[in-house]
């Protein structure tokens, strides 16, 4: 008995037909780098604009709060960072974040002090705003984002899609969209690079902790989340949300 001939006009594979044109040939590393570069460019463009409180005396917004904390942590001993003293008026942007955030401010203060000491001079730098100081302050946020949040986002996406965690076909195909949603989150970009904050550090540590859980590295996850809480105490509340 003759075997039936196969139809030459067979229906296309729906999974292939649903792919976008660049998906079949785009290497994962190149795609991840392209998304990361787009996220970095967006942050740079947002940082060119004004920040919340710019030129608005007497407190000048969160930009001045972060600058003032750099000033305090650079010149005062750690025992005076959270105490009201003649050099630390807690009514004027008193340091109200945990110690890891204070040490982060001290590190950035050292970098800024090396090239623009007037921007972090004790007492005399209140409300200091210049083009150079703005560039330096923006750079500290951008570099923090690159060193903490970006690697955590890449690790999280990898841990989410790997076999045994998020290894279904749909998740493997959609990894680029997940990475784009994390890195291009408008709330984080606007608050950190527009308004002026360092949420990228605490959120990056938290995201790394989640990646640690997904990849079954519980000790790493616990260490990263402890660091996140010690950078910003609101992290437990955000996790509950």
Automatic annotation (TrEMBL):
Keywords: Endoplasmic reticulum, Glycosyltransferase, Membrane, Transferase, Transmembrane, Transmembrane helix. Pathway: Protein modification; protein glycosylation. It is found in: Endoplasmic reticulum membrane. Signal peptide: none annotated. It is a multi-pass membrane protein. It is an enzyme of class 2 (transferase). Its EC number is 2.4.1.-. GO terms for cellular component: endoplasmic reticulum membrane. The chain crosses the membrane at residues 135-158, 174-191. Pfam families: Alg6_Alg8. It comes from the Eukaryota. InterPro entries: Glyco_trans_ALG6/ALG8. Belongs to the ALG6/ALG8 glucosyltransferase family. This is Alpha-1,3-glucosyltransferase. It comes from Triticum turgidum subsp. durum. The lineage of its organism: Eukaryota, Viridiplantae, Streptophyta, Embryophyta, Tracheophyta.
């Amino acid at each position: 008995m003759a075997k039936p001939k196969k139809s030459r006009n067979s229906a296309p594979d729906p999974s292939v037909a649903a792919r976008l044109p660049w998906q079949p040939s785009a290497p994962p590393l190149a795609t991840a780098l392209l998304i990361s570069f787009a996220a970095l460019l967006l942050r740079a463009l947002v940082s060119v604009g004004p920040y919340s409180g710019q030129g608005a005396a007497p407190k000048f917004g969160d930009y001045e709060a972060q600058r003032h904390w750099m000033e305090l942590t650079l010149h005062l001993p750690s025992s005076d960072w959270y105490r009201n003293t003649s050099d630390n008026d807690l009514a004027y942007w008193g340091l109200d974040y945990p110690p890891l955030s204070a040490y982060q401010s001290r590190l950035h203060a050292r970098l800024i002090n090396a090239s623009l000491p007037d921007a972090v001079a004790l007492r005399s730098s209140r409300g200091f705003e210049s083009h150079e100081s703005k560039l330096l302050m923006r750079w500290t946020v951008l570099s923090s984002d690159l060193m903490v949040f970006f690697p955590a986002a890449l690790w999280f996406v990898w841990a989410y899609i790997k076999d045994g965690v998020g290894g279904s076909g749909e998740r493997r195909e959609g990894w680029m969209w997940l990475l784009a949603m994390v890195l291009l989150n408008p709330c984080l970009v606007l608050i950190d690079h527009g308004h002026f904050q360092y949420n990228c550090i605490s959120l990056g540590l938290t995201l790394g902790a989640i990646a640690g859980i997904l990849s079954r590295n519980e000790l790493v996850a616990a260490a990263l989340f402890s660091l996140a809480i010690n950078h910003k105490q609101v992290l437990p509340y955000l996790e509950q949300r």
